[in-house]
Write a structure and sequence with these properties.
The complex is a heterotrimer of chains A (about 180), B (about 350) and C (about 650). By secondary structure, chain A is mainly α. Chain A contains five helices and no strands. The longest helix of chain B has about 35 residues. Classes of the chains: A mainly alpha (about 180), B alpha+beta (about 350), C mainly alpha (about 650). At the B-C interface, α2, α3, β8 and β9 of B face α5, α11, α12, α13 and α14 of C.
């Protein structure tokens, strides 16, 4: 026979679960924390380390790439700040593609953040002061999601823009490093 | 009917104790012919339906009083059902009256619909309204690009001239609604539509997004500013000009702050290098009464608060917080306040 | 012999055998394996009532936030989840499961004079699936994955670009759960009504409630697929990047609205018709006479079922469709007033010529008339295009549909609960507390929702989490919020009444109201086999019109769970068949299906992988077990 105490227990259990946990991927950071003093280039691209200096401490995680909302914000900003003007929708154009696995300046969040903030040779401008840090981190999250570096359920399956497909040309030679080995 | 509606307004006023003073934001305080037609229909239907309500409730009360049988023991059912013949006649009549009433409502509704849509279109002013999360992009299109005006959130219209509104949306569905002026119209991405109205009384009429559009749906307001043709033309000519040049050092520094900080990523100020269209056009920001989609008054304090902490005022909106040095902020506000 | 003497069970070898054949096994497994319709019906009611209370708490929170202008209690992110989950809960997890499935599953087989519902395992499966959908939505809310795009989740706001994360996916998948459940119930109920009626209960003698459940079941079968298609397409867009609703790729945002409201408006009648059915059932009982106008009422119900599918565009008048088509839908929307008005007039005529004996359900009948009438009349305003474009998506509409849905569904529901609770629990509810419950709820309801008409006319849109002080909406909103306190007090009184009366209330006889339909021919609560002997029927109100020597059906075996199948029109006995007995498979299948549904929110692989346990469970469910019940002609019974 039905006993209402069972459903009562169920409700209590659900409430307790709810109070003790909530889904990080659904967190929406509407009020960004004040900008931190992000040490740029603190993540090394290669494992080579000069002399007796210890490896720098691991960088703090990018809280903005743990939330689907922030990645989505990054996607909007990527369009609105005209990142797509050079990188297209990740497929590359005047700038290198972002959907593939070739990273000239590293794929860690801090590397990409530094790229946005400081700019890079051969065309990538610096957006320091122009893009607030938290928005840059959101864009970092989106860029990494383009390359498949984030879990797929953090990024949108499509945008409301025209459908884009990855650039059919396999990969681009790294540009911007001085000296040609050939 | 006008006398009737005045009486009803007074009645409503007595019930609510909150006067419908001029400018009161309400569907029943029309400032245009279109809203007036709808108000007429409202009161017509209101009285018809009120009579229906009273009749049905009176019948129910009478039936309950007539039939109540205060006996403790539950009565047995008889096989005869006395009164069914009379009831058949009464129900038949009532259904017939209902059908006739509905026909009246239908005719009144269709006629009013035609009257609402019958705006003469000669000498009309065309306004393009494009919805964004969570502000309104207002364009006065012109075949000559240099005669096109772009502004945001405040729609200036001349009194007594037909206005054609072209609607569109840049992201999700919004709905343009100023109850004193006209019924609402959804702004649908990919499906442009148009409607028209003509404002009869000068004034500032508040409007608000009526289709749920996300986090800041509640504070996506706009205003329709109806003014005489002369005032409108003067405003229009002013809006056509590029932004005012800085008149002093503080304003010049403010412009530098604008062009070297995050502002420039989203906003346009015509006459400068700022040309992004993600946020509202600020070329003549000082000519507007309100900022942040009619959320805050356009005064230095509110402007400063908005620039520093927009997420505190409207959580989730797309304006980024700006950490500016006090001097920079002062200069920026001085500059923005000079953009008449 | 009088019919109740044969159909109210009493101790005998016959009932012992029936008890053994139909009784449920004890313990945990018995609890999950029972498929009897009274168990499942009560579970539907209790579960949906819990969801109703939870949804009410959300409404209370929203009213607190709106009590004052610029209130900072709840931010927009939470508020949007609150109203979305509130609306979705009340529609999908409360109104339909309570009124269509709860009352339907419990009452319909009893009213048919049947021993069981048709396809009892499918019926049990439907319940578990419904429960799964409800838990999905609510656990999501607690985990901050509460849907936040509104209960109709318009595209593109609900699409992948503007609703990141899994919130809308949870909502859309909840739709899938509840619609699968509703479809299952519709099949069970329609089959029961058409094939399980007691001999003599021809279509022309069928109680109006059965007519309405039949029409409802058919409406569900036609309306629900539309919403399953639309939520399915939305899920595909969101999960694997299809382009159904992408305007840039030629997708149409209005297509979504058309499909949604093609379901959404019939849904309103799916919620209202059970309320009307309860009215048509209860009014004759308390006015001590037959219902007036059986035929017009039945015709009205069937007409509602048809016209209900022709009015959906009145939800879209503000989108700027051509005026001619809008006028067509105005006419259709006005036309549906006619059948509803006809039912009203027939009820009034019944009352006029009846002899009212005042009990608690009567209060709720009066409340229904008052409130539903206001809602129906403001609905006439909304059917008119020019008026609708003013008040569409404002608090006027919020007021309207709460008057319609609470008036047309909740008030009849309470009338029905006070009426049938003695049948379900075997005890009467306290009448004094019943009056307190009614008046607190009635006053609170009108305080809250009548004020909303004014708010809407003064320009307050729906779904705003705050409003500015200078809009002058504060006083009315405060009043609306205060009304909620009254409603909550009323519900607390009801719960107290229910919990107390269930244990200590006066014992209910088998027919405490001296009602005429067959569920009152058996004991309260009914035994697991419903009736020791299947009754036969002589008129529209089986018990009122039973002959002094009304026969019962004999020849139904009591050592196997046999049910009598009659033909659809005349309810002549055709054959006996064995009903499906208790089984754990419906529960296990529901678990497997739920796992596949929930998994598919996260990865498309959940569909092929999740299908494996579903197939295994279905094999277990459908595996032939020795003897197959072959249809046999019913034996003649003694006249």
């Amino acid at each position: 026979m039905y006993s209402p105490s069972r459903s009562a227990i169920l409700v209590v259990v659900a409430t307790v679960i709810g109070m003790t946990s909530s889904c990080a991927r659904e967190t929406r950071i509407l009020q960004p924390p004040p900008p931190g003093q992000a040490t740029l280039n603190s993540v090394q691209v290669s494992g080579i380390n000069p002399g007796a200096y210890p490896l720098p401490p691991p960088p703090p995680p990018n809280i903005y790439e743990e939330s689907a909302y922030s990645v989505s914000q990054g996607q909007t900003l990527f369009q609105e700040y005209n990142c797509s003007g050079c990188h297209a929708n990740g497929g590359g154009g005047m700038g290198p593609p972002l959907m593939d696995n070739n990273w000239i300046y590293g794929s860690e969040p801090q590397n990409i953040f530094a790229t946005i903030m400081e700019g890079r040779p051969n065309g990538m401008p610096s957006f320091r002061n122009r893009i607030p840090e938290y928005q840059a981190w959101e864009i970092v999250g989106y860029v990494r999601s383009l390359a498949g570096l984030l879990p797929s359920d953090l990024s949108a399956a499509r945008t409301d823009e025209m459908n884009v497909k990855p650039n059919p040309t396999p990969s681009q030679k790294p540009v911007g490093i001085t000296g040609n080995p050939e | 009917m006008i006398a009737l509606s005045t009486t009803t307004s007074n009645l409503t006023l007595a019930i609510l104790g909150d006067p419908y003073h001029a400018g009161q934001h309400a569907a029943l305080n029309p400032a245009s012919g279109q809203a007036a037609h709808i108000e007429w229909l409202y009161w017509l239907l209101f009285w018809i339906l009120a009579i229906v309500f009273v009749l049905v409730m009176a019948t129910l009360t009478a039936a309950a009083r007539k039939s109540v049988t205060p006996v403790q023991e539950i009565l047995d059912i008889s096989r005869e059902n006395p009164g069914d013949e009379g009831a058949a006649w009464a129900v038949g009549t009532a259904v017939g009256v209902t059908v006739v009433t509905l026909l009246v409502v239908l005719v009144a509704s269709v006629v009013t619909g035609k009257r609402v849509e019958a705006v003469p279109l000669n000498n009309s002013v065309t306004i393009q309204v494009r919805g964004h999360q969570w502000w309104w992009e207002i364009t006065y299109p012109n075949s000559e690009p240099y005669l096109t005006v772009t502004t945001a959130n405040e729609i200036h219209v001349p009194v007594g001239r037909p206005i054609v509104v072209l609607t569109d949306s840049g992201d999700v569905i919004h709905s343009l609604w100023a109850p004193n002026i006209a019924g609402k119209r959804d702004l649908l991405p990919g499906i442009p539509t148009s409607f028209s109205f003509q404002v009869d009384k000068p004034g500032i009429y508040h409007g608000q997004c009526a289709e749920f559009c996300g986090l800041q749906h509640a504070q996506m307001g706009f205003a329709i500013i109806a003014e005489s043709l002369d005032q409108f033309s003067a405003w229009y000519r002013q809006q056509l000009k590029p932004a005012a040049e800085p008149a002093n050092e503080a304003e010049a520094r403010g412009r530098d702050v604008f062009l070297t900080h995050a502002c420039v990523m989203c906003h346009t100020i015509r006459g400068t290098t700022a040309g992004s269209r993600y946020g509202p056009d600020l070329t003549h920001i000082a000519s507007r009464d309100m900022i942040a989609a009619e959320t805050l008054p356009n005064v230095p304090g509110a402007l400063a608060g908005w620039i520093l902490d927009p997420q505190g005022v409207k959580p989730g909106n797309h304006m980024a917080p700006n950490i500016l040095a006090p001097d920079d902020l002062q200069a920026l506000i001085a500059y923005l306040q000079s953009l008449h | 012999m009088a019919i109740a003497e044969a159909t109210v069970p009493r101790e005998s070898e016959h009932t012992d055998r029936l008890n053994h054949t139909w009784g449920r096994s004890r313990g945990f497994l018995g609890w999950f394996s029972t498929v009897h319709h009274t168990d499942i019906g009560i579970r539907y009611m209790v579960t949906s009532f819990v969801f109703f209370l939870l949804g009410g708490v959300l409404a209370g929170l929203m009213r607190l936030q709106l009590a004052r202008p610029n209130n900072g209690l709840i931010g927009p992110d939470r508020y949007n989840q609150l109203f979305t989950v509130h609306g979705s809960t009340m529609i999908f997890l409360f109104a339909v499961p309570m009124l269509f499935q709860g009352f339907g599953v419990y009452v319909v087989p009893l009213m048919c004079g049947a021993r069981a519902i048709a396809f009892p395992r499918l019926n049990a499966f439907s319940y578990y699936i419904y429960l799964g959908g409800g838990l999905l939505l609510w656990i999501g809310l607690f985990l901050n994955i509460g849907a936040d795009a509104g209960w109709f989740a318009y595209i593109p706001l609900s699409g992948p670009q503007f609703s990141p994360g899994k919130r809308v996916d949870f909502w859309a998948q909840m739709i899938t759960f509840t619609e699968v459940s509703a479809l299952g119930s519709a099949i069970c109920l329609a089959t029961t009504i058409l094939r399980y009626r007691a001999p003599g209960m021809t279509l022309n003698r069928m109680p109006i409630l059965l007519w309405e459940k039949l029409v409802l079941s058919i409406m569900v079968m036609f309306a629900m697929p539309a919403v399953m298609v639309v939520s399915g397409l939305l899920l595909l867009d969101r999960l694997i990047g299809t382009q159904f609703f992408n305007p840039a790729e030629g997708g149409d945002v209005l297509l979504y609205q058309h499909l949604f409201w093609f379901f959404g408006h019939p849904e309103v009648y799916i919620i209202f018709l059970p309320g009307a059915a309860i009215m048509s059932t209860i009014i004759p009982v308390f006015w001590r006479r037959h219902i007036f106008g059986y035929t017009p009422i039945v015709v009205s119900v069937v007409a509602t079922g048809f016209i209900g599918f022709g009015v959906w565009v009145h939800h879209m008048f503000a989108t700027g469709l051509p005026q001619l088509s809008e006028s067509f839908f105005t006419a259709a929307s006005l036309m549906i007033v006619i059948p509803t008005a006809t039912q009203f007039f027939c009820w009034l005529a019944t009352m006029w010529n009846g002899r009212l004996q005042f009990r608690i359900p009567v209060l709720w009948i009066f409340g229904f008339f008052f409130i539903f009438l206001i809602g129906g009349l403001s609905g006439v305003m909304l059917a008119s295009v020019p008026l609708d474009i003013q008040v569409h998506d404002t608090y006027f509409v919020v007021a309207h549909f709460h008057y319609v849905l609470i008036g047309g569904a909740l008030f009849p529901m309470f009338a029905g609960l006070y009426y049938w609770m003695p049948k379900m629990t075997g005890r009467m509810l306290n009448e004094t507390l019943g009056k307190w419950h009614f008046w607190l709820f009635f006053i609170g309801f009108n305080m809250t929702f009548f004020t909303m008409h004014f708010l809407g006319l003064r320009g307050m849109p729906r779904r705003v989490y705050t409003y500015n002080q200078n809009m002058n909406w504060g006083a009315l909103n405060m009043m609306a919020t205060l009304g909620v306190a009254f409603m909550f007090a009323g519900l607390v009184v009801f719960l107290a009444n229910f919990l107390h009366s269930r244990e200590y209330g006066p014992i209910a006889e088998h027919n405490p109201w001296k009602a005429g339909s067959l569920e009152w021919a058996t004991s309260s609560p009914p035994p697991p086999y419903n009736f020791p002997y299947i009754p036969t029927v002589n008129g529209r109100e089986a018990l009122w019109e039973a002959a002094p020597n009304q026969p019962v059906v004999s020849g139904i075996r009591d050592d196997v769970p046999e049910v009598l199948v009659t033909n659809s029109l005349d309810a002549d006995p055709e054959y006996k068949e064995e009903s499906e007995g208790a089984s754990l498979w419906p529960f296990l299948t529901a678990l497997a299906v739920s796992a596949a549904f929930v998994g598919s929110i996260f990865t498309a692989w959940a569909v092929p992988i999740g299908a494996v346990p579903v197939i295994v469970c279905l094999l277990g469910w459908l595996w032939p077990r020795g003897h197959s019940p072959s249809p046999r002609m019913a034996e003649k019974w003694s006249q």
